[in-house]
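TA notes. Do not distribute before section.
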Amino acid sequence: MRRMNQKLTCNKPTDKYSLIKLIDSSISSNWFANTALLFHDYSHFVDCNLCNTLIKRYADSKCHSRSIFIYTQMRKLNILPDSSTFPSLLKSVAQLCYGEVGKSIHCNAIQLGFTCDVYTNTALVYMYGICQQPDDARQLFDEIPERNVVTWNALITSYTHNRRFREAIDVFREMLACGVKPGEVTMVGVLSACSHLGALNQGRWIHDYIVRNRLRMNVYVGTALIDMYAKCGDIDEAKKVFESMGVRNVYTWNVLISAYAMNGQGEAALEAFDRMVVEDFKPDDVSFVGVLCACCHQGFVEEGRRRFSRMINQFGLQPKIMHYGSMIDLLGRGGFLDEAMEMIHSMKLKPDAIIWRILLGACRFHGREELGEFAFRKLLELEPMNGENYVLISNVHTQRKKWTEVGEVRELMDRGGIKKIPGCSSIEIENEVYEFKASDPLKTGHEEIHKMLEDMKNQLKLAGYVPEKEMVLYDINEEEKEHNLIYHSEKLALAYGLLYSSEPTLRIMKNLRICQDCHQFFKLASAIYKRNIVVRDIKRFHHFTGGLCSCKDYW
């Protein structure tokens, strides 16, 4: 260790700035040991300002472990932090998700009397949120004596980061009620929450607020608005925002391409990509994910092959696992399962569970039982506790009415304590979001939905609806199968919307993929009840109008 120190001090620092320079020049692999030695040998140069400079420098350059290490050396040398120490330090803690370290630093801040410093408290709120402790973030937020707009933004970020989107919107409303004027960062955060919830009315209100209050429509706010409209199924409004933007970046284009892809406008997605290239924006990995998804949703197999080749040969991008996943989905759904398997074997990357699940889903669609079993065995190795995998292989067996095999899968799930993910759907009515789970109307207080579903089923049967009972994964009688199908969560949300909303368009979100029975049900319902119905499932949007769907029955 002494030899190393002598080598480091051959250019002996004469002030704190030359010490900083020497620390920066330390060999990366020995940086922590070297820095500890330098702090020890030149402690007469080391003060709070020097440490703050280093902490901020390393936090800003994403060397977060170094930032935290400097703080530990401060404490060893009994150097007291000041108000400039904690914000950058806590940024590093958040980025590394070191929650326990963050709590320790919070205790230090309290002991040192920084409980009234707005910048430290804001950084703490942000740190707790990013470290997946949103309740601690909220508790601290409620206790701190002074807040600014950045503090409110930190709390909104805390909730959105932890997928507690309703609470993020509630904080935004609370912020307005307190007279705090939101900024562009606030709008990006709350629009993200609206996007995930499919809360279009709330998103529209925020858009109006931006216009009314003349908030700057910068590239980040504009892109967030496009994303919100796209994820709420209003592609026309998303396009209007895009065309009105004076400045765009590659992320803006990517959001537009994905918007078209997920809303069943594959041709428009490809045209947007080509226009992006013409306007001198260089596509990135995400651009091609959008393009390949557009091809997949429309069944453009040959176009997808061509675009995948261009990504590598024209744009010099190496495919990532998400690109392979899109291509295997495209080939599998198109019936080219052997080619999909060839691609899996030729990949330079190790296939992950998503790849095998996509293949298994395609096997269900095309009845390839043996290949499906192979994919399922791979999934058991990678994700033995994921209930979705068991449901998919059950679907393969159900299609061939192999109830013994279905029973074996069910027994396997029961032995392992593996649960199927319950279907959950939501609908927004007058700025309120209502959630439904399968079989909810069987509970007391939902008799009106139960009656509405029965009426709908009878009306639709007159129009030609035939329940697709083969979708039911149990060997039960026909009446029980039909009873099971009618209580799918998206049907519950639709019944509620027809009962309590007068809007011409009903917008429903589902956490799983829409099934064939519900798809047929919704097509007929859109014609019988003369409503536009937009369903956003885990894969894409379905726009039902006049008995037809935007996916053209290819999903």
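Switch to the second chain here.
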Amino acid sequence: MLRQLKEPFQYQRSGEAVESTAAGKGKRKPRAQNMSQTLKQMWSYLILYKGRLAAVIVMVILSSAFSLLGPYMAGTAIDRFLMNRDSGIIVFLLLMALVYALHSITMWLQSIWMITISQKTVYRMRVELFDHLHRLPIPFFSKRQHGELMSRVTNDIENVSSSLNSSVIQVFSSILLLVGTVSVMLSLSPLLTLLTFLVVPLMVLGMKWITKQTGRLFKAQQRNLGDLNGYIEETLSGQRIVKAFSQEKTVISAFKERNERIRVSGFWAQTISGFIPKLMNALNNLSFTIIAGIGAIFVLNDQITVGTIIIFVEYSRQFTRPLNDLANQWNTLLSAVAGAERVFDVLSEDEERKDEGAARELAEVSGKVVFDKVTFAYEGRTATISEVSFEATPGETIALVGPTGAGKTTLIQLLCRFYDPSSGSIMIDGHDTRTLKRENLRSHMAFVLQDPFLFEGTIYENIRYGKLDATDLEVQQAAKLANAHSFISRLKDGYGTVLKSDGSGISQGQKQLLAIARAILADPSILVLDEATSSIDTVTEIKIQEALQRLMKGRTSFVIAHRLNTIQQADQIVVLRDGAILEKGSHSQLLMQKGFYSSLVNGQLNNGMLSESD
């Protein structure tokens, strides 16, 4: 994943596309509400390859023409060369062979070209979906299971791929064959054609009932599959907790329930859709019996020839075969539509608010941060932050303290523009953060979180994530400043050691040191520390504290902490409760006030802990 960082890399809930607003939201495409809308959106992807698609259509037309010509030539051969014993049968048979050969060639070409189109289309869809996911706001991911989202990027798009590879060609080809077959049959014998059509109403009624059932079942199958993938991802990620609390039987039982839902929906979807070929075969045999019986009578009365009967028998089969193919491909198409709707459902989600048209970039940031009467409320909720005001001077360390739910993390999210204040403003070096480009704003920040996240890749690559163009020497210097160089050197492959995505193979403290090295390499002006020394042993904590002191030197730092030694060293402590500032000042000043902070220190610091972060 890390090796790909340097490589380059929409629907509304209802109604029409929405133009960009003053708030900065981008345009959204109509959301897929039904099959026709979804197919229309799919067409918008296919039309991008209109040249090759036109070539496929030409090949489909030619293959259909050759398919219609073959049976006609077979009937003609019987009348001319077997019944009337005309000469030239060898040449005629060679022409027939050529027709069937051309039919095979055109079928092969249309298949190859359509596969190319379908793979390019789903590649484009994956890129667009993955890109869109990275432009969605943070709250979107907090409401969705990651495994379920992964299912949309993989399984659902793969369903679309499978359908495009075969269904699009098959549907178009089947329609052409139906039209051509009916035209030729009418020209040969309107009466026999009418008799053949007797089975059509039965086919239509049967297909209508079956597809109505399977459409619902295929959607349920895709939904259940996404739910199962989300549950698997969740339980595998939390495997330590599962084992620690001996909940293996519980999660296995829950897995079986979800797996059973997929089995049931898949069973009925496949079973009911399996009725279609059997229904078509039965009606096909009925049609053949009618044509053979009535046709024999016509031949005896010299109304038609034996060759015509042969042609009609072949065309009657050719007439029901496209119907059968349409029915089978319809089920595949329904499954693909179900997957495509889930993809377009994500694409319909509002992106993170776009930067204002006049948004600017800051080349340098000194680190002066001012919160001025900042109020914020999540959608449909009461205010989480209310009238918060304080100032951080360049190089100052601000500790955010308070009980769970006080609003500490929300302040940090506002600072990073994961959200914007409902009222009030946050100023950086005199500039309202809402007037700055998000990417530029965050480029001046670095984060060291309570649970450091490492990507799959080498230690070099994980540290270099803070600055992708950093040299190996710069990476090593950052590791030394973070007190990580010594343990890295002891690893078998040193900085080339490949870590898994969860950082397995190294301790929690070592992961934290790598996260600090990553932040040092980024050289930020503003630093955010979210309980960076939580759950760390004393020896490792000393190393981390030393590394953090180097990292924080000369930088404006915001620290969410509940360890006393971290809080005492802060230049300013902001005490929050219920989203409002209760007290602020240095550690000694707040103790002298004998207020809420003092009670927390005296009452809750016997174990060295002040509060839990929210």
